[in-house]
Design a protein that fits this description.
The chain has 673 residues and is α+β, with helices and mostly antiparallel strands. The chain has four domains: 3-133 and 242-314 and 617-668, no CATH class; 143-174 and 176-222, Calcium-transporting ATPase, cytoplasmic transduction domain A (Distorted Sandwich); 330-350 and 494-595, 3-Layer(aba) Sandwich (Rossmann fold), CATH 3.40.50.1000; 352-492, Calcium-transporting ATPase, cytoplasmic domain N. The strands form five sheets. Strands 10-24-23-22-11-20-21 form a seven-stranded mixed β-sheet, with helices on both faces. Strands 2-1-3-9-4-7 form a six-stranded antiparallel β-sheet, with no helix packed on it. The two termini are 29 Å apart. Mean pLDDT is 80; it is low at 413-420.
């Protein structure tokens, strides 16, 4: 509990003790009257004294409600729960004064239990806010700048792009950058919800908000602090509550019209029946009808709805954030729950977007030897395909025969254990290199002339390249004018991609479509392996938008179409979809700007989890709406007919609110969904 909540708890306890003590004291020392009005105990304490004594616990527990109601009247915002509580309790006190029965307990009890409900609600909101505040722990307090051999702590805002910062073990990475020196492991759990650490080596990109676990690293910043990932995420989370769902808007409009309506109904209940009885010659019984009207007011207080619905969305966003799913607002959470169609990008979404060597075919020499020559020929290139060949050679590979194709496929070794000797790149072995744009490279390695590239490069030099039966990028190698074989390179499907498609089907997503700019053969191969039924391939970014427009037109009923992309070249499609979900969005400005939901790691299984989180949240919202309105209507009818007393009214108000808030807190717990 915070200081304010503790103070409220003390007030509640003091008021409760005083109320109970006064109740028993009145039974003993109160002025007792017979039915004809004669005094039964001459020495009893008179009524005005009891009124003043009972006002002490009433003001102790309710002075802030009285203050808020008075301010609301001054600001012309009269009809809220504070106004209803004040009218009901002051009215009950007035009835007790007129009847001089000393029964002020109900009025104090109404205020007391209302404050208990408010305290409980405040604690629940605090718990939900702490879940979201856990994300705020990623905010770095300082950055280390090295000056004259000493580290100086500075405000991250003061660090310019391109500066070198030092991150020591246990510290947060304050700004996005590239590791210049050192190696370490990074804890990304605050960003992704995953506890598995990531290794960071020289040349690797690191993002702000991660925690350095093991070694000292020097990082060259690539952005200013205001543009770093951590700043983007914090801004996203802090502003998520400003985007309200349709359910929240409905509750706001409902409360705006509902409260004046019930106040008018209560006034009518207090005046019209007694007037009718008076006209028809009956006893008007003003006190009884006023009591019913006051009970009606207490029952009608809409705080259960006004508090629990926003709290449910708040808890849902907090719970999602705790597992690495950032939702920009409750309106997106509500829309996500109705997802019926999901369209995917391929590269970086369902695949790693990292090229790897997957085979060496038709080699006229040992596979390791062909890879060695190709890696040295490509060692001056920065192309991703060249890097994949170099990486494969440096890591060291074992090779096994694929019996179905008769071709050699690589078996990666654990760690970086070298096989068959030293696998370091030695550039001195390369005497000349010529890069031929769009085709490959020509190089001389150990005195041998090598051509490494596509079939056009070999054809231009009068060498016939052998066709590859496998799907992927083919790098042909020729040595001294003779064909030497080719290396198959392909993007790697993410380990959880197949599981993600199955999970979406289980979550009730009726249609999954993959949109990609890749060749049809590659796209069809990936889709078949993942179990995706529909594929649109060879699409430019503008083509993807056109296809998405068609998919949007084919939706059924109120279902929502979600597009999942890497957020860099898919920004137009992410913006056009009903819901844009950014995959692998760490460090991607385009993802955070264009998407409605950002998954803080690149696990496609989180897509189905996000949908399940949204559906659980909406289920709780509707449970609270039906429960609160149902109980309210029942108790309002009972109150109007005089069956419900003030104690039942307290349950209908505070009890329903407490139960609704307890139910809302369930939206926080989503890890096992």
């Amino acid at each position: 509990m915070n200081r304010k909540q503790k103070k409220m708890l003390v007030r509640i306890i003091i008021a409760a003790v005083l109320m109970i003590a006064l109740h028993f004291a009145y039974e003993i020392f109160g002025e007792q009257k017979a039915e004809d009005g004669t005094l039964l105990n001459e020495g009893g304490i008179r009524e005005p004294v009891w009124f003043l004594l009972y006002m002490i616990p009433y003001l102790v527990v309710g002075y802030d409600i009285l203050k808020k109601a008075f301010k609301g009247i001054l600001n012309r915002q009269v009809f809220d729960e504070n106004f209803l509580m004040v009218v009901a309790t002051v009215g009950a006190i007035a009835v007790a004064l007129v009847e001089q029965n000393g029964d002020y307990t109900e009025a104090i009890a109404v205020m007391l239990f209302y404050q208990i409900g408010e305290l409980f609600q405040s604690y629940a909101v605090g718990k939900s806010r702490r879940n979201i505040s856990a994300l705020m722990d990623i905010r770095p307090d300082y950055a280390n700048i090295e000056e004259d051999g000493k580290l100086t702590k500075v405000d991250p805002d003061e660090v310019e792009c391109g500066s070198i910062i030092v991150v020591q073990p246990g510290e947060k990475v304050p700004i996005d950058g590239i590791v210049e020196e050192g190696r370490t492991t990074l804890n990304t759990s605050a960003l992704t919800g995953e506890s598995l650490p990531r290794e960071a080596l020289p040349g690797d990109e690191v993002i702000s908000g991660c925690i350095n676990m093991t070694g000292v690293i020097r990082v060259r910043t690539t952005k200013e602090f205001g543009e770093s990932t951590v700043s983007k995420i914090l801004d996203l989370v802090e502003n998520s509550s400003s985007r309200k769902s349709r359910s929240e808007d409905f509750i706001s409009r409902f409360a705006r019209y509902y409260t004046p309506a019930v106040c008018a109904s209560a006034l009518a209940l207090a005046i019209l029946p007694p007037l009718f009885l008076l006209v028809t010659g009956g006893a008007p019984a003003w006190g009884s009808w006023i009591y019913r009207a006051l009970t009606f007011l207490v029952i009608s207080c809409p705080c259960a709805l006004v508090i629990s619905i926003p709290l449910t969305f708040f808890a849902g966003i907090g719970g999602a954030g705790n597992v690495g799913i950032l939702v920009k607002g409750s309106n997106y959470l509500e829309a996500l729950s109705r997802t019926g169609v999901v369209a995917f990008d391929k590269t970086g979404t369902m695949t790693k977007g990292v090229f790897e060597v997957n085979g060496i075919h038709h080699s006229g020499m040992e596979n390791d030897k062909l890879l060695e020559y190709a890696a040295h020929a490509e060692c001056f290139s920065s192309h991703p395909i060249a890097k994949s060949i170099i990486r494969c050679y440096q890591e060291g590979m074992s090779w096994k025969l694929d019996k179905s194709t008769g071709e050699a496929v690589p078996v990666r070794n654990d760690g970086h254990k070298m096989v068959h000797g030293d696998h370091r790149i030695r550039r001195e072995r390369v005497s000349s290199v010529e890069e031929i744009g769009g085709n490959g490279v020509r190089a001389v390695v150990d005195g041998h002339e090598l051509l490494v590239g596509n079939s056009k490069l070999l054809a231009a030099n009068g060498i016939e390249a052998m066709k590859c039966r496998s799907v992927g990028t083919v790098v042909h190698v020729a040595m001294d004018g003779e064909y030497a074989g080719h290396i198959l390179i392909s993007d790697v499907i993410k380990p959880t991609a197949m599981e993600a498609i199955k999970a979406l089907k289980q979550a009730g997503v009726r249609r999954s479509v993959m949109l990609t700019g890749d060749a049809k053969t590659v796209a069809d191969s990936v889709a078949k392996e993942l179990g995706i039924g529909e594929v649109r391939s060879e699409l430019l970014p503008a083509d993807k938008v056109s296809v998405l427009e068609t998919l949007l037109a084919e939706k059924k009923g109120k279902e929502v179409l979600a597009f999942v992309g890497d957020g860099i070249n898919d920004a137009p499609v992410l913006s056009r979809a009903d819901i844009g979900i950014a995959m692998g969005a760490l460090g991607s400005d385009a993802a955070i700007e264009a998407a409605d939901v950002v998954l803080m790691d690149d696990d496609p299984a989180k897509i189905a989890k996000a949908i399940r989180v949204a559906r659980k949240c909406m289920r709780i919202v509707y449970e609270n709406i039906y429960f609160a309105i149902g109980i309210k209507l029942l108790c309002l009818v009972l109150g109007a007919f005089g069956i419900a007393n003030m104690w039942m009214a307290i349950f209908a108000d505070v009890g329903v609110m407490v139960l609704a808030v307890i139910n809302a807190i369930r939206a926080l717990f989503v890890k096992k969904l």
